[in-house]
Amino acid sequence: MNGDNAAPKGDSVNPSVCNFGEHLTLDGYCGDFHKLNDKDLVYQCLDELPTCLKMTKLCSPHVYQAPDNQMKDPGGWSGFVIVAESHISIHTFPARKFVSIDVYTCASDLDIEFVSGYFKSKFSLQDIETNFIKRGTRYPVCNLV
Question: So where are the chain's domains?
Answer without folding.
Answer: 31-71+104-138
